[in-house]
């Protein structure tokens, strides 16, 4: 049975350029269980799809490590 895919969109205040988005996409895409990552500079929004073994807490941990923490609440 295939693992269910979860999707979440969130605001990242530190996004300022395409390089920021590329860093986020690169770092998250390298994680086991991440299916797809997209980011938009203008809206500072990131959308990620993942399945087990990845968890939302692990995604947030990776983002915090690279200094692109998601905003709270996730979307303004």
List keywords for this structure.
76 residues; Alpha-Beta Plaits; three-stranded antiparallel sheet; alpha+beta; single chain
Describe this structure in words.
It is a single chain. The chain has 76 residues and is α+β, with helices and mostly antiparallel strands. It has one domain (6-65): Alpha-Beta Plaits. The chain has helices at 18-29, 56-65, and strands at residues 6-11, 34-40, 45-50. Strand 2 and strand 3 form a beta hairpin.
**CATH class annotation:** Alpha Beta
User: Level of helix content?
Assistant: 25-40%
Helix- and strand-based class? alpha+beta
- State the helix count: 2
Number of strands: 3
Q: Could you tell me the mean pLDDT?
A: 94
**How far apart are the first and last residues' alpha carbons, in Å?**
36 Å
**Weakly predicted, low-confidence segments:** none
Count the domains: 1
Short description:
By secondary structure, the protein is of the alpha+beta class. The chain has helices at 18-29, 56-65, and strands at residues 6-11, 34-40, 45-50.
Please specify the SSE layout and strand pairing.
Layout: E1 6-11, H1 18-29, E2 34-40, E3 45-50, H2 56-65
Antiparallel strand pairs: 1-3, 2-3
